[in-house]
Specification:
single chain; binds (2S)-2-hydroxybutanedioic acid; Hemocyanin, N-terminal domain; alpha/beta; binds nicotinamide-adenine-dinucleotide; Malic_OxRdtase; 550 residues; 5-stranded parallel sheet; Rossmann fold; 6-stranded mixed sheet; globular; binds magnesium ion
Length: 550
């Protein structure tokens, strides 16, 4: 699986070889390799192991003062030597993921054009390229197994930041390699620079300053893009990321029945929230049907999570309509109800959750109103409104149940509805909490309580890998829910009863192998797989992970 020195490499001269980020080993080139490939004199004479190189990185890392310095350091390292970069990430996963991924990637995106240092990572397609996208894809230098594409219109909770959002597909793809072992030379981050409605303040902004194209032009452009990708790399997985809810649902419906594609914010988030919620139920000795859910935020993430959780309640004797009655979605206009037809007409994705049973005169405008009315046992935050789960809200939720389940999923940390320590303090340690961005341990009565990051990073690498390995024609809801079950099950009963909601990040490769196997299993069962079925799916996934070694 690795892009090691090959015959093709031998045709590169020494200088090209050390400038090739996928083949470069720097001081780890052996003497023989140096002589064979014209490298003698081009690198310092010592020969080091990758472990020695990592040790040097560790010292340099400690010297860096700010998270942005660390972000830039890692970008440079990746640019110089991908193998060393991924070795460093995997050796220091808990320290480095919050830099290459949320929350620091969010801060980096906001300043992306300003901190830019000629990083050729991926492709940028703009409106003027309409009609030529297929030809332009030929400019990419390699085969591609997976693409993460954004249009920059809803980057984390930071809004429409246009081309600056490119850090997100880059970060997601780093996770595809860290998590599921995608070969980094075969992943492609793409930003569709179709303008931004926000005025980019920086004089260095690198994207189009125009507003967005009209709806017909926009959809025609995405159609052309999807068709071009399929024509150029017929077997690659296409992941949509951080598209505004205006388009996220519509594009998912448009392409999911004929393409190997999924939307991470809707489906990946639903998947990890379902896995985490299942474990929260195991931890609290409850069943999903015991719960009443309030969601703050009814966008791509909110409705994606609601739908995935509602499916947990469905059974032979319980329909999806009955399940949805457990849910109360609150958006910027208050509780989503059938009375607000204008809201539903503009946001069809909310309609299945619109309540039609609120007694006339009941106040449901604010979150507190709805909490008092619906008496939730679970609160889900996907609103981008920091601090919206206040002490009073948590206090009210604690009246309804011994152990309220509180997921504050908005990213980055600056947008989080409630921090872990606050949730513990306000609920006197009763709440079962998870957050979208990483949180430090909580101090509860002198004890350190570890925290769990309910983030789609646990599952999207395995979903993509499983779809790729099975050569699944499409990615179905059943595959996604099998992925959730595999992730939840990865935490054994004895851990769950202690309150462990998610597996440890250091096990991400193993978790991803199980998630990929679950996806493949369903792909074979449903007849969507074009690959031949291997005997042991988990082992097959493991065997097809790019190994981080020279
Ligand atoms: N943890 C994860 O894995 C994960 C995954 C996806 C999204 N997210 C995060 O969830 C957040 C929302 O993402 P999204 O894709 O759903 O965004 P979105 O723009 O589609 O939806 C945001 C929702 O919040 C609502 N909202 C805005 N202001 C509000 C207010 N004052 N009161 C109540 N509701 C309000 C909007 O009406 C909308 O329904 C983002 O911060 C994103 O980073 C986290
Ligand atoms: O990017 C993340 O950290 C998760 C999610 O996809 C998001 O949009 O917030
Ligand atoms: Mg996202």
């Amino acid at each position: 699986m690795n892009s090691r020195l090959t015959d093709e490499t031998i045709t590169m001269n020494g200088y090209e070889l050390i400038r090739n980020q996928f083949k470069n080993k720097d001081t780890a080139f052996t003497q023989e390799e140096r002589e064979a490939h014209g490298l003698v004199g081009l690198i310092p004479p010592c020969v080091e192991t990758i472990e020695q190189q990592v040790a040097r990185c560790e010292v340099q890392w400690k010297e860096l003062n700010t998270v942005m310095d660390k972000f830039i350091y890692l970008y440079h390292l990746q640019q110089a030597n991908e193998t060393l970069y991924f070795k460093f990430l995997l050796t220091h996963i808990e320290e480095t993921l919050p830099i290459v991924y949320t929350p620091t990637v969010g801060a980096a995106c906001v300043q992306y054009s300003d901190i830019w240092r000629s990083w050729p990572k991926g492709m940028y397609l703009n409106a003027s390229m309409a009609g030529s996208i297929r030809k332009i894809l030929d400019n990419w230098y390699n085969e591609v197994d997976i693409i993460v594409v954004t249009d920059g219109t809803r980057i984390l909770g930071l809004g429409d930041i246009g081309i600056n959002g490119h850090g997100i597909p880059v970060g997601k793809l780093a996770l595809y390699t860290v998590g599921a072992g995608f070969d980094p030379s075969r992943v492609l981050p793409i930003t569709l620079d179709l303008g931004t409605n926000n005025d980019p303040l920086s004089p260095f902004y690198m994207g189009s300053r125009d507003g967005h194209p009209d709806e017909d032009k926009y959809v025609a452009y995405i159609d052309e893009f999807v068709a071009a990708v399929k024509d150029k790399w017929s077997s690659c997985v296409l992941q949509f990321e951080d598209f505004s809810k205006v388009h996220a649902f519509e594009l998912l419906e448009r392409y999911r029945y004929e393409n190997r594609t999924f939307n991470d914010d809707i489906q990946g988030t639903g998947c990890i929230a379902a896995a985490t919620f299942v474990n929260a139920c195991r931890a609290t000795n409850t069943t999903p049907r015991d719960h009443r859910f309030i969601f703050l935020g009814a966008g791509a993430g909110g409705v994606g999570v609601a739908e995935a959780l509602a499916q947990l309640l469905v059974g032979p004797d319980y329909t999806i309509e009955q399940a949805r009655k457990h849910f109360y979605l609150v958006d910027s206009r208050g509780l989503v109800t059938t009375a607000d037809e204008a809201n539903l007409a503009a946001n069809e994705h909310k309609r299945p959750y619109a309540r039609d049973d609120v007694p006339a005169g009941t106040p449901v405008r604010t979150l507190m109103d709805v909490v008092k009315y619906a008496k939730p046992t679970a609160l889900m935050g996907l609103s981008t409104i920091p601090g919206s789960f206040t002490k009073e809200i948590i206090g009210e939720a604690c009246k309804n149940t011994e152990r309220p389940i509180i997921f504050a999923l908005s990213n980055p940390t600056s947008k989080c509805e409630i921090l872990a320590q606050q949730c513990s303090d306000y609920s006197h340690g009763k709440a079962v909490y998870a957050s979208g961005s990483p949180m430090p341990d909580v101090d509860f009565e002198g004890r350190k309580i570890p925290q769990y990051q309910c983030n789609n990073m646990y599952v999207f690498p395995g979903i993509g890998h499983g779809a790729m390995l099975a050569q699944a024609k499409i990615i179905t809801e059943e595959m996604i829910s099998a992925a959730a079950t595999a992730c939840a099950k990865y935490v054994p009963d004895e851990e769950v009863v202690k309150g462990v909601l998610l597996p440890r990040l250091k096990d991400i490769r193993e978790i991803s192998a199980h998630v990929a196997a679950a996806v493949m299993e369903v792909a074979f069962e449903q007849g969507h797989a074009m690959a031949e079925r291997p005997a042991d799916l988990v082992q097959y996934a493991r065997d097809h992970q790019w190994k981080v070694q020279y």
